[in-house]
Specification:
With 454 residues, this protein is α/β, with parallel strands linked by helices. Helices cover 45% and strands 19% of the residues. A hairpin with a 4-residue loop joins β3 and β4. α2 (33-56) packs antiparallel against α3 (61-90), α4 (95-105) runs antiparallel to α6 (151-158) and α9 runs parallel beside α13 (349-372).
Length: 454
């Protein structure tokens, strides 16, 4: 790109930026009486000067020419003063510093243009006590993916944490949700029983807190969850947090497959009337066969009910559940280490056939379970791409990964985001498939009282 073309592009962005600054300045002045009074003062001074000009020059040919010239000069100066005044209030105070810092980290397009800050304003969210500030930029056609790739460098340039990056004005702008460095995520956030409202009719699960808000997942929208993380990342604690909330809700049955002998789940889980533990493959296959039968039964039931598309509609609509029909339970199957369930290494031919049947049943549930209220919550720490079949993984839309290497992060998230953004010593820190980093809530499973209401 030659220098003339670069200059043309830079001038075009400058004009556009000036227009945005004028619009922002007008908004600020419109909503602030003090700024309006100062603007009126500028215009009053211009009028005063015009009156002085009127009485300064004689009423003759030369005097009239001088008056016109002075009127024109006063009008030009007044216009420039008004425009400068509007531009001043339309330009964020930190714009120049950010512009210089972006230049230092090389956040530019092919023409050498640097994103321009349009506005800075507070963002209020009830679910967090952090001070969140939005920064809106004229992106100068720098793609969102480039902002995400340079996120760490941008945080350094801003001296703030970035909670979220999104496109605005179509794809012409970028909005950064930022948080002061001292208000970053805590290393441990303790679960409070008051966080869970059992009266909520939808299956919403609370996972933890991001910089921006409380992180939740709704099983009506994302019916299956895949959790990954290396040893000590907090994966099992997060799984227990999810299952505890489900068991606290009405009309939910939970079955946990734990082929490590149940060491990660204390006796309190076995004591719950709607929680079942499975430790053997043969027992698991029998259970999954029963789930497929139940799935087909519900399918036939919904077909027999006109306009019933899913379990949510069935349970909330009284025309489906009156008299002889009871609300259907949601059924959740969880595996603390799915690799232990599906790994065929060292197995006999018969055992491999059992594993293949288990895999087939899980694939069917992953594909069809959403509408019929049958959910999978699978966890793994083993970086083996052959463990999870494509039919299972591809039908699990919500994925979470804690501390992990590039391989495991790639298996869970299809990217290295977990390896890049989760510190190597972090516990309970996760990133989901939408790129949201959060600290999962920690709770003590040994103090669970299933009979105590939240």
């Amino acid at each position: 790109m030659n220098s003339n073309k670069k200059d043309e592009l830079i001038n075009e962005s400058t004009y556009k930026y000036t227009f945005y600054r004028l619009c922002e300045g007008m908004k600020h002045i419109k909503h602030d009486p003090h700024k309006q009074h100062r603007l009126l003062l500028i215009l009053a001074l211009a009028l005063l000067v015009a009156i002085l000009v009127q009485h300064t020059f004689d009423s003759n040919a030369i005097g009239d020419i001088l008056k016109i010239a002075m009127y024109f000069l006063v009008a030009v100066i007044a216009l420039i003063a008004v425009l400068c005044y509007i531009l001043y209030y339309g330009t964020p105070k930190i714009a120049h510093r950010i512009h210089n810092n972006f230049s230092r980290i090389g956040l530019t397009n092919s023409a050498g243009e640097i994103p321009l800050l349009l506005r800075e304003y507070p963002f209020y969210k009830k679910s967090t006590s952090r001070q969140v500030f939005c920064l809106d930029f004229l992106s100068c056609s720098i793609e969102k993916s480039i902002w995400e790739d340079k996120k760490t460098a941008i945080e350094t340039a801003l001296n703030r944490n970035i909670a979220k990056i999104e496109e605005i004005d179509g794809k012409q702008g970028i909005r950064l949700y930022t948080v002061p460095l001292e208000q970053g995520l805590s290393d441990k956030i303790v679960w409070q029983n008051t966080m869970l409202n059992t009266q909520i009719p939808i299956c919403k699960i609370i996972l933890g807190e991001s910089l921006l808000e409380q992180v939740t997942v709704d099983l009506n929208i994302t019916p299956h969850i895949l959790i990954g993380g290396s040893t000590g990342s907090g994966k099992t604690v997060l799984l227990r947090l999810i299952l505890m909330q489900l068991l606290k809700k009405q009309n939910v049955q939970v079955t946990i497959a734990d082929f490590k002998g149940g060491v990660d789940f204390s006796d309190c889980w076995k004591q719950h009337p709607k929680c079942r533990m499975i430790f053997e493959r043969s027992e698991l296959l029998s259970y999954l066969d029963g789930l497929i039968i139940e799935l087909n039964r519900r399918k036939a039931l919904f077909v027999s009910k006109n306009n019933c598309n899913n379990i949510f509609d069935y349970n909330i609509n009284p025309i489906y559940t009156h008299n002889d029909a009871e609300p259907l339970d949601r059924i959740v199957f969880a595996a603390d280490e799915i690799a232990e369930v599906l790994d065929k290494t060292g197995l006999s031919k018969t055992e491999k056939e059992v594993v293949a049947q288990i895999e087939s049943r899980l694939a069917t549930i992953a594909r069809l379970g959403r509408a019929f209220g049958i959910h999978l919550i699978l966890a793994t720490q083993r970086p083996d791409a052959n463990i999870l079949a494509g039919q299972i993984k591809n039908n699990i839309s919500y994925r979470i990964c804690g501390r992990a290497d590039n391989v495991l992060s790639g298996i869970i998230l299809d990217s290295t985001a977990a390896a890049d953004e989760i510190p190597s010593d972090a516990r309970g820190r996760f990133i989901d498939s939408e790129g949201v980093v959060f600290q999962a809530y920690w709770f003590d499973e040994f103090n669970i009282d299933w009979n105590a209401p939240f």
